[in-house]
Amino acid sequence: MLTRVVVAPSGFKESLSAQAAADAIADGVRRVLPDVVIDRIPLVDGGEGTAAALAAATGGRLVALPATGPVGEPVGTHFALLGSRDRDTAVVEMAAVAGLSLVPRALRDPGATTTYGVGELIRAALDTGVRRILVGCGDSGTSDGGAGALQALGMRLLDADGRELPRGGRELTRLSRVDARGLDPRLREVELLVACNPYNVLCGVRGVARVFGPQKGATPAQVEELSAGLENWAKVLTRDLAITRTDLRYGDGTGASGGLGAGLAALGARLLPRFEVLLAHLDLDARLARADLVVTAEGAMDHQTPRGKVPAEVARRAKLSGRPVLALAGTLGEGAHNVPGVDAFSGILPAPMALTEALVRASELLTDATERALRMILLGARLPAHAEVSGTQRPSSVR
């Protein structure tokens, strides 16, 4: 009998926040099990909603301010000041100022978008006197290697003639040297941490421009241009800043958020696996252990899900306590059936529909899909353990 359900989804990119996804799933659970205890744990991965979620979890607050958005225009944004034992920590969510959702579809050119606003938020956090700044990476609309952020923090990027480069990843192919003498000196006085997906690297065949550039609007030619620029960026930073302990090209997490990880690592930031950093504030493991069923979700479930996505992390942790896991997804791709720890999964679309319609109806679709999946689970629970279907033993799980 199900008495306690943990609902632990990520957000659905450009559609639902993690909180909205958790609410939609909870509504579906209530349709089937009106009296069940539901523990909602909207999970953040460094992308959209990270600052708000960590502020809420620690009794902190959001600080609202304007900053430079990814296409160069001012946007309203925020960073978080955490509470409780983390009161000396600020959280800068790059997606809140340089995320893909802030780039109009007609302007999606990752060669032109910038992380300049991320540097402005870091500067604003420094103004508060915190001792630690955590930068959450995810859902980015940029591919500039963090160059814009470093420019906002006082670094000069110069071409062969000594002229300062404009913002944007495509300019990095012309980079000749960097001048770090103008960097904000307060950066030396704080601990700079980056919560990122360690699978994302800056360069090579699995480099960030090749893997994520097309999602941000890059053509094949632009992907190669961006890749070349990021290679040059890593080379110049390593040489001019005398970096010896960090591999900016292939180090874990250097490709996070269009290469922001590499740019901040060049300043001495520590790149950390995002779930180790973020989930510690949510008491996730203990809450999963108390569940009879765990429901997680994400926008797309496929072969990349085990590479640092929320459903895979939830399933891994739930299995430490032997808890069953149901995963729901906006779309199911190749490899969706191979996510370790997921016992059953389902897509949320009841019929083919246009992407624009699916995005608008995501909450409704997720609620309906939760209801359908739970009814199937309860039906399966009522079947005799050795029931036979068409002369064969019933499989242990149906996907």
Number of structural domains: 2
Helix/sheet category: alpha/beta
Radius of gyration: 22 Å
Summarize the biggest pleated sheet. Answer: 6 strands, mixed
Determine the strand fraction and express it as a percent band.
Answer: 15-25%
- Helix content bin: 25-40%
CATH topology category name of the largest domain: Glycerate kinase, domain 2
Helix and strand element order:
EHEHEEEHHEHEEEHHHEHHEHEEHHEE
Assign an overall shape: globular
Total number of β-strand segments? 15
Strand order of the largest sheet: 3-4-5-6-9-10
Number of helices: 13
| CATH architecture label of the largest domain | Alpha-Beta Complex
Q: What's the CATH first level of the largest domain?
A: Alpha Beta
List low-pLDDT spans.
Answer: 389-399
Pfam families: Gly_kinase
Family: Belongs to the glycerate kinase type-1 family.
Organism: Streptomyces regalis
GO molecular function, one term: glycerate kinase activity
Give the key terms.
single chain, 399 residues, alpha/beta, Rossmann fold, Glycerate kinase, domain 2, five-stranded parallel β-sheet, 33% helix, globular, disordered C terminus
Question: Can you walk me through this structure?
Answer:
The chain is 33% helix and 19% strand. The strands form four sheets. It has a six-stranded mixed sheet, sandwiched between helices. α1 crosses α13 (362-382). The protein folds into two domains: 4-43 and 284-393, 3-Layer(aba) Sandwich (Rossmann fold), CATH 3.40.50; 50-277, Glycerate kinase, domain 2. It contains 13 helices and 15 strands. The protein is α/β, with parallel strands linked by helices. One of its GO terms (molecular function) is glycerate kinase activity. InterPro entries: Glyc_kinase_flavodox-like_fold, Glycerate_kinase, Glycerate_kinase_RE-like, Glycerate_kinase_sf. It holds the Pfam family Gly_kinase. Belongs to the glycerate kinase type-1 family. Keywords: Kinase, Transferase.
